[in-house]
C-alpha cells in the first residue's frame, strides 16, 4: 500500500507538471493560476499545494525537468570534431534542431523559459540562470569553431566570439520564428538550408569581414 501511495503521489505530481507546462507555454505564467492548473489536472487545490509551495516552486521544478538537446549532441560530437570540426558543428546543430522539431514537451519548455520570457515577471528571478543557458549553448558553438581554426578550416584572424554569437542568433532565431508561425515553414527542412548557408559561409568567409 505504501508503494502504491508513493506511485500515485508521483503520478499526481507528474500530471500537475504536465498540465502546468501546457498552460504556461500556451498562455504565459501570469494568466494561469495554481487553482486552475489543479482543476484542469483533476486534483484538489490542496493537492497542488501539497506538491508545490507556490508558482515559483512549480516553475523551478519545471526548469529542472528541462533537458536541452544542445549538451547531449555536443557530447556526441566531441570525438567527431577531431576529424572535421565544421562537419561536427553542422551535425551538432542539425541534431539539436531536429529534437526541437519533433519533441512537443521540448517546444513547450523552450516557449516557457526562453521564448518571450521578458514579458513574464514570474521568471525574472530565474533570468541569470536562463541567460547562462544561452551562454552555454554559445560556448558549445565556440568550441567547434576554435577546433575548426586549429584545423585550418577557418582563417586565423576571424573573430570567433562574433561568429559564435552570429550562429547562436541564427539558431535561436529559427526556433523563435518557427514557434511564432509553425505552419509557415518546416523546421527540419529549413534546417538543411540554414546550415548549408551558415557552414559553407564559414568556409569562405574573408577575415576582413569580422
Automatic annotation (TrEMBL):
Gene3D superfamilies: Tetracycline Repressor, domain 2
DNA-binding annotation, residue ranges on this chain: 33-52
Family matches, as Pfam families: TetR_N
Sample GO molecular function, one term: transcription cis-regulatory region binding
Residue ranges of coiled coil: none
PROSITE patterns assigned: HTH_TETR_2
UniProt protein name: TetR family transcriptional regulator
Organism expressing this protein natively: Marinobacterium mangrovicola
